[in-house]
Write a structure and sequence with these properties.
It is built from ten helices and 14 strands. The protein has 340 residues and is α/β, with parallel strands linked by helices. It has two domains: 122 residues, Rossmann fold (3-Layer(aba) Sandwich), CATH 3.40.50; 164 residues, Dihydrodipicolinate Reductase, domain 2, CATH 3.30.360. Strand 1, helix 1 and strand 2 form a beta-alpha-beta unit. Helix 1 crosses helix 10 and helix 6 runs parallel beside helix 8.
Length: 340
């Protein structure tokens, strides 16, 4: 079959580079254009030496004329930029966005949490927020695919199945998440220059982190009840990986083993989500450089509570890998293509 021509906008960031690395090895993809702003004229190998011997196009500035020559546009750009591109799309184009531009269903929520006016309001209804394991069957109805944030992916994968089945108390859910510093982008080195980034752990975004809106929205979509949660993110002194520790109250007469069995059942036929043995510890080391998410259901010292652990690679399952997974499902390929 003919290969699908793709354009990657924002190819020099951490997620953009990971995306290109996967696309290089995707047998149905031809990387037609790499686009950037401050990197125009350079090779991507300037930003990652492992790409030096790869036959990649030089980075050019994006312009709308390029859209007639590609089928799919991947955007790994600062928030607000994918909206501009979405207004230029041709009927044959698909947009797969890794920023926050189409994650929220209301333009007013986007303004509230991102402090930017949404400039493509009419395109929100043409987009879908897609964690593939939760809503892959709906993808073909949309031209814009919004890939979830890395933190929400680690949180929604273990919790959405349980909320749907009314298996957990929806009050006082406590989420403690730790991410490698690559999740903050290349600017993190300058931003945290005085905070000993590589040897300390830092909490940030307390109470008002932007991903709160994304998490709340997805909770609300699967239940009519109010879900009350607290989410605190941390930057840890590692390059990549996320570990989320989630504290939950059990409902009366619901046993912890029921929770574990439901998650095993829900993800039994999936390729990338693995539910570990009951009470098994996990680490980011088991998932980095993969598109996998590992989940473990664990006891608490309080028999009325449980602890759920969730780990993934923020740059792959929490970013570029999830984008490729959506791409594969959208075009009818095996979802594992390019993601081995």
């Amino acid at each position: 079959m003919n290969k699908i021509n793709v354009l990657v906008a924002g190819s020099t960031g951490y997620i953009g580079i990971e995306l290109v690395k996967i696309l290089i090895n995707h047998k149905y993809v031809n990387i037609k254009y790499l686009c950037g702003s401050t990197s125009v004229g350079k090779s991507l190998s300037n930003y990652d030496k492992s790409l030096k011997k790869k036959h990649l196009p030089k980075i050019i500035k994006f312009n709308k004329k390029l859209l007639s020559k590609v089928d799919v546009i991947f955007t790994a750009l600062p928030n607000g930029e994918a909206q501009k591109i979405s207004n230029l799309l041709l009927p044959k184009n698909y947009l797969i966005d890794l920023s926050a531009d189409f994650r929220l269903r209301k333009a007013s929520d986007y303004l509230k949490w991102y402090k930017i006016k949404h400039n493509a309001k009419n395109n929100i209804k043409k987009s879908i927020y897609s964690i593939p394991e939760l809503n892959s069957k709906k993808l073909n109805n949309f031209k814009i695919i919004s890939c979830p944030g890395c933190y929400p992916t680690s949180i929604l994968l273990p919790l959405i199945p349980l909320i749907k089945k009314n298996l957990i108390n929806l009050k006082n859910i406590i989420i403690d998440s730790k991410s490698g510093y690559s999740g903050a982008g290349r600017g993190v080195h300058k931003k945290y220059a005085k905070k000993n980034l590589y040897e300390s752990i830092s909490a940030y975004g307390l109470g008002m982190h932007r991903h709160n809106s994304e998490i709340q929205q997805e909770f609300d979509l699967v239940t009519q009840k109010k879900v009350s949660f607290s989410f605190t993110p941390h930057l840890s002194p590692m390059f990549r990986g996320i570990l989320s520790t989630i504290y939950l109250d059990l409902l009366p007469k619901k046993k912890i083993k029921i929770i574990h069995r439901e998650l095993i059942k829900f993800y039994k036929k999936t390729s990338f989500v693995k539910v570990l043995k009951f009470n098994e510890l996990l680490s980011t080391n088991d998932v980095i450089n993969t598109n996998k998410c590992h989940i473990s259901v664990c006891r608490s010292k309080d028999k009325k509570k449980i602890i759920i652990l969730s780990s993934l690679d923020n740059l792959i399952k929490g970013g570029s890998g999830q984008a490729i997974q959506n791409f594969n499902l959208l075009f009818g390929f095996n979802e594992k293509t390019g993601l081995h």
